[in-house]
Please model this.
Amino acid sequence: MSILEIKNLNVEYRVEGKNIKAVKDVSLDIGVQDSIGIVGESGSGKSTLAMAILQLLPSKITKVTGEIIFDGVDLLKISEDELRKIRWKDIAVVFQKSMNSLSPVHKVGFQMSDIYKVHKPKATDREVKERILELFDLVNLSERVYDLYPHELSGGMMQRVSIALSLIYFPRLLILDEATTALDVVTQGQILNEIMNLEEKLHLTRIMITHDVSVVSSTCKKVAVMYAGCLLESGYVRDVLTKPKHPYTEGLLNSYPSLKGERKNLRGIPGTLPDLSISHRGCIFADRCKKATEICFKKEPKMLEFDNNWNVACHLVGGVDCD
Model:
């Protein structure tokens, strides 16, 4: 059963007279209590995709088309008032650098209480504090944090506060956008373990956006690989990250060290992301792909589905109509 269906999603920015295609024809089907990691280089459209789901992109310079169906409702077709009833209550997000989002001159508990009352204005101060302390317990924070200022917390504690804020209404879908990037490895591991425990307790569905393949491999059931706004490969982690079918996925994996197995030199992917303000023939990754053939520069590969919901857009696996 799906909780979120993204169908042919396109996001286009209009900047300085240019139309930048930040997300192009992306389709994803996310089931209830799924955990899916969206990976790719910086600039590949991961965060834009997340912001499009919540409709937090600036409307004056952004054009969003396609379908984003959450629990049977197309979020692109409802009013802002209707969306506000879903945003944060049913779908919540932990933003990049969210540890800097709180006011430095107000105590943590005061700010969280204020946020809680946005959707629960009739809640008593006692009810609100009980909910916040319950959330602190879930994310392994001491009750004393309630009466502290943000500058009195460490980076890991602030990130836990951000996660607690995202869970304040016990949402059904949680999006984490590079939520652990600025943390040390030990703290990152602790927070990721707590997030996975929360999924079991709260029956959460999670979308994790990151450039770190190792985070996805250890914390997610599924993975989607994006490049230059396009979805190139998706499926279960045990399939995609152990036997990748797309050369870009293979390149990402070769860029990360392994703690097990044979030692080998790390290899980056030569070249840079293409200019998304111009049209591209063929495969979007062709210019940087060592395995590209003539057809890769002429025809865009189709997305093919293999066993076990494994989807790949690459001519190497037959994704081309040669007629």
